[in-house]
């Protein structure tokens, strides 16, 4: 019996998954440390939430520029540098004494680092290395963030409870730094670097050469935004994804633990519930990737957002001092839907914007983080002013229902015949110039 070696694309995907898990450690940290920082320094939840908002905002705004930097400098260099930034930002928090230092470490350093390997990184890996199974690969890599949350949340909650928040912060710093050697050893930029074609590529599949970027990566990213902003699909996708960020990272990811604590639940128990969100998110996102290869992504997004909105409207009545069955059902359901929106959104960016799809998705993802940043700060202010989070949950539920409507509005363009099969490197919204045929690499 002859054993075939796996295609190199799977090794690249595996390393990308580990890197995303390493960076995800810090993504789990803010919700665990909100209360300890409030108690030690006396900073209001609004102030601490503002630092989280800076992190979320830079996490999103860095993504499109990082996608362009990956075109210019390569995946390996950008991802390795990003992990070092995450490690430095998390490690330096142990020396802070003022709230502006929290903004600098949590917000700026970690925001830039995690943003450089956000979901735009997932889109770049999937688009470069895979022709077949793209939706599944996007689902699996996106689940890397959820896996990081699953691995780190209970550990960080326990370390914080037994040894203090500084030990938890240093643990995240060490985890991010430990992934750098693996990234440098195994991650490669393109299939051609190893003398192979993308996984599933046939003899007739054309892989467009990366577009020339006069003026550097920043100009390439801004040019893609300028083109995309003139199209209706971009604004519908960006609007829905902004609400996606508000209802996940911004609200539930940041404020679920303190909200549960308000109702008498211990932080360790609440962190365990949030970790379960990560567990079920892995299954939900991979399943969503599988569905994206088979079902119209517009219908998928409409269904995901509608179900999320209805669940958020129910959440305020579920909080209690113990994790009763109804709350566990919510956690299971919300986990399955957490970032199930990513594979269909990546697929639609590729469909509408072709070879620029990864960079355009970076801008769509930036809207995700803008929504998350606004929600993180707004929910903290709601809690400070009203004494509970109920208004934040109800408002987020209504917004998610609106996102469902925005996604279904994309079907109107399909019925008018504006959507159809795109040629290699040719998006529906970005048609290829007749005089500049795609090159074969």
Structure notes:
The protein is mainly α and 441 residues long. It has a single domain, classed as MFS general substrate transporter like domains (Growth Hormone, Chain: A). 74% of the residues lie in helices and 0% in strands. It has 17 helices and no strands.
Q: What's the SSE pattern?
A: HHHHHHHHHHHHHHHHH
CATH class: Mainly Alpha
CA radius of gyration: 21 Å
Secondary-structure arrangement, i.e. CATH architecture: Up-down Bundle
Beta-strand residue fraction: under 5%
Subcellular location: Cell membrane
Protein name: Putative MFS family arabinose efflux permease
Membrane topology: Multi-pass membrane protein
GO molecular function, one term: transmembrane transporter activity
Give me some keywords for this one.
441 residues; MFS_trans_sf; disordered C terminus; 17 helices; Growth Hormone, Chain: A; mainly alpha; transmembrane transporter activity
Question: What's a quick, concise take on this entry?
Answer:
This protein has helices spanning 8-41, 45-73, 75-92, 99-115, 119-129, 134-163, 165-178, 180-186, 217-228, 232-262, 267-292, 297-314, 325-337, 342-353, 357-386, 390-408, 410-415. With 441 residues, it is mainly α. The chain has a single domain, classed as Growth Hormone, Chain: A (Up-down Bundle), CATH 1.20.1250.20.
């Amino acid at each position: 019996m002859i054993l075939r070696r796996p295609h190199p694309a799977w090794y690249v995907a595996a390393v990308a998954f580990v890197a995303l898990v390493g960076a995800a450690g810090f993504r789990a940290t803010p919700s665990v440390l909100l209360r300890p920082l409030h108690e030690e320094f006396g900073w209001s939840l609004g102030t601490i939430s503002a630092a989280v908002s800076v992190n979320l905002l830079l996490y999103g705004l860095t993504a499109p520029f990082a996608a362009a930097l990956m075109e210019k400098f390569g995946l390996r260099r950008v991802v390795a540098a990003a992990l070092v930034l995450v490690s430095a930002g998390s490690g330096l928090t142990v020396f802070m004494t003022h709230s502006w230092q929290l903004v600098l470490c949590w917000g700026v350093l970690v925001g830039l680092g995690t943003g450089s390997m956000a979901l735009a990184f997932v889109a770049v890996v999937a688009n470069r290395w895979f022709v077949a199974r793209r939706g599944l690969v996007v689902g699996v890599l996106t689940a890397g963030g959820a896996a990081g949350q699953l691995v780190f949340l209970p550990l960080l909650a326990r370390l914080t409870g037994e040894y203090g928040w500084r030990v938890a912060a240093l643990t995240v710093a060490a985890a991010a730094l430990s992934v750098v050697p693996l990234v440098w050893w195994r991650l490669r930029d393109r299939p051609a670097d190893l003398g192979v074609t993308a996984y599933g590529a046939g003899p007739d599949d054309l892989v467009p050469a990366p577009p020339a970027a006069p003026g550097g990566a920043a100009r390439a990213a801004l040019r893609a935004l300028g083109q995309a902003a003139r199209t209706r699909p971009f604004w519908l996708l960006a609007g829905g994804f902004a609400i996606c960020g508000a209802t996940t990272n911004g609200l539930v990811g940041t404020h679920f633990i303190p909200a549960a604590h308000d109702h008498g639940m211990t932080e360790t128990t609440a962190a365990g519930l949030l970790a379960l969100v990560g567990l079920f998110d892995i299954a939900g996102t991979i399943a969503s990737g599988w569905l994206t290869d088979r079902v119209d992504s517009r219908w998928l997004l409409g269904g995901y957002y509608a179900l999320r909105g209805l669940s958020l409207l129910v959440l305020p009545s579920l909080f209690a001092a113990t994790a009763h069955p109804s709350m566990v059902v919510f956690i299971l359901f919300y986990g399955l839907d957490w970032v199930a929106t990513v594979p269909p959104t990546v697929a639609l960016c590729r469909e509408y914007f072709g070879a620029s799809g990864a960079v355009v998705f970076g801008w769509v993802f930036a809207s995700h983080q803008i929504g998350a940043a606004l929600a993180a700060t707004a929910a903290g202010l709601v809690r400070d002013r009203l004494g509970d989070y109920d208004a934040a949950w109800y408002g987020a539920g209504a917004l998610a229902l609106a996102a469902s409507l925005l996604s279904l509005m994309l079907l109107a363009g399909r019925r008018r015949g504006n959507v159809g099969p795109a040629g290699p490197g040719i998006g529906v919204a970005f048609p290829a110039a007749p005089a500049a045929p795609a090159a074969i690499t």
